[in-house]
Amino acid sequence: MEKRVILVVCDGLGDRPVKKLRGETPLQAAATPNLDWFTAQGACGQVDVIAPGVRPGSDTAHLALFGYDPHKVYTGRGPFEAAGVRLDVREGDVAFRCNFATLDSAGKVVDRRAGRIREGTDELAASLTDMTLDETGVAFREGTEHRGALLLRGKGLDPRVTDGDPHAVGVPVAEVRALAPEAAKTAKIVNQFMDRAREILSAHPINRQRLQDGLPPANVVLPRGAGRLAKISPVSEVWGLRFAAVAGVALVKGICRVVGMNLLDVRGATGGLDSDFDAKVSAAMAALDTHDAVVVSIKAPDIAGHDGRPEEKVRVIERIDRALGPLREAFREEWVLGVTADHSTPSSTGDHSADPVPLLAYTDGGRKDEVSQYDELAVAKGSLGRIRGVDVLPLLLDLADRTEKFGA
Question: 47: closest CA among 300, 394, 392?
Answer without folding.
Answer: 392
